[in-house]
Write a structure and sequence with these properties.
The protein has 345 residues and is of the alpha/beta class. The chain has two domains: 176 residues, Medium-chain alcohol dehydrogenases, catalytic domain (Quinone Oxidoreductase, Chain A, domain 1, Alpha-Beta Complex), CATH 3.90.180.10; 135 residues, Rossmann fold (3-Layer(aba) Sandwich), CATH 3.40.50. The chain has eleven helices and 19 strands. The strands form five sheets. Strands 3, 4, 5, 8, 9, 18 and 19 form a seven-stranded mixed sheet that branches. A six-stranded parallel sheet has the order 12-11-10-13-14-15, with helices on both faces. Strand 18, helix 11 and strand 19 form a beta-alpha-beta unit. Helix 4 packs across helix 5, helix 4 crosses helix 10 and helix 5 packs parallel to helix 6. The longest helix has 14 residues. The two termini are 18 Å apart.
């Protein structure tokens, strides 16, 4: 059978082609793709910062309906509505057996040498699938993945209701970190932004402080509002040396900094602030278990319960046939974009 798939063809180039539809191999499921978000990592590939496949469609912020099962799939049935993680795991290595499956020694792509969410049908390994509640829309389902990323970052910070949290970056992951922190009832939140649509969204999500980096010095602002102490936890979602240095400067002594940005090249940064402050610096790698439940399960519950109104982030919708325009708009934040969704019937 044939289907349509959007495939990178070069730097800032993506086009829809007609390709063979993959049938699911053992352990895999075929999903009729319904809605897929354009992720920051997709944009890294679009700009050539990360690798591009010129044979298979990317796309992992996705959801749809199961239409075929490979041999050995027992936890899913045809007709199930599902959301998809961005990777598969083996379930038998040391990390998987201890519940840290995002660190799997045999971790692979969710659709290795097959098509992802920017295709009419997505081939996905069963280890990265989660069933959606019947009342959840496909728009909400396509937002589970980025919310799970943000939920883990907040969990890695250790922040609780007595803590203050600052978030560097007003894009999708930053805004979802804000929403998750608010849902968790943290004491006070701050988020940095660059564009007006990010300001308005941060207000809607309940930020206590919104700092526009275009006209305000973040370090000076934090020094003033915290009486020179800093924030208990800082989540860095943007990347780059400047943002790393801001994060380590505005965190309080012995506070925590979580790096969840897509760092794609080595950086020259100031490490002396870490030595003098004794701040803890850690990474947050996609999602796994945070406590007794997976980050995906937590994200599904947050959306389904209404604790996080995830659809507030979606600013643009395009059909698969218009994916070139979808990427152009997503890459240009002056367009008003935050989250751009590619939609299919």
């Amino acid at each position: 059978m044939r289907m349509k798939a959007a495939i990178y063809t070069g730097i800032e180039e993506i086009e829809v082609r007609e390709v063979e539809r993959n049938e699911p191999p053992p352990g895999f499921v075929l999903v009729d793709t319904k809605q897929t978000g354009i992720c920051g990592s997709d944009l890294h590939s679009y700009f050539g910062n990360w690798g591009q496949s010129h044979e298979h469609a990317a796309g992992h912020e996705t959801c749809g309906v199961v239409v075929a099962l490979g041999d050995g799939v027992t936890k899913f049935d045809i007709g199930d509505r599902v959301a998809v993680e961005c990777f598969s795991h083996c379930s038998i290595c040391t990390y998987c057996e201890t519940g840290q499956y995002n660190l799997c020694l045999n971790r692979g792509g969710i659709s290795p040498k097959m098509h992802g969410g920017f295709a009419e049908y997505t081939s996905t390994h069963q280890s990265g699938l989660f069933k959606l509640p019947e009342r959840m829309t496909f728009e909400q389902g396509a937002l589970v993945e980025p919310l799970a990323v943000s939920h883990r970052a907040i969990a890695r910070s250790g922040a609780n209701s007595r803590d203050t949290v600052a978030i560097i970056g007003g894009g999708t992951i930053g805004q979802f970190c804000l929403a998750d922190a608010v849902a968790a009832g943290v004491k006070e939140t701050l988020i940095t932004v660059k564009y007006e649509q990010q300001v308005e969204l941060a207000k809607a999500l309940g930020a206590d402080h919104i700092v526009n980096v275009g006209d305000t010095d973040v370090q000076e602002y934090v020094k003033e509002v915290t009486n020179g102490i800093g924030f208990d936890a800082v989540i860095e979602t943007v990347g780059g040396a400047e943002n790393f240095n801001i994060a380590t400067t505005i965190v309080r002594k012995q506070g925590s900094v979580v790096l969840v940005a897509g760092y794609y090249k080595p950086l020259e940064v100031n490490l002396s602030t870490i030595v003098w402050s004794e701040a803890s610096i850690t990474g947050s790698n996609c999602y796994g278990y945070s406590g007794m439940e997976t980050d995906f399960e937590a994200a599904i519950e947050l959306i389904d319960s209404g604790k996080v109104d995830a659809t507030k982030l979606v600013t643009h919708y395009y059909p698969l046939e218009e994916i070139r325009e979808a990427f152009r708009v997503s890459a240009d934040k002056t367009s008003g974009a935050i989250k751009v969704h590619v939609c299919q019937d």
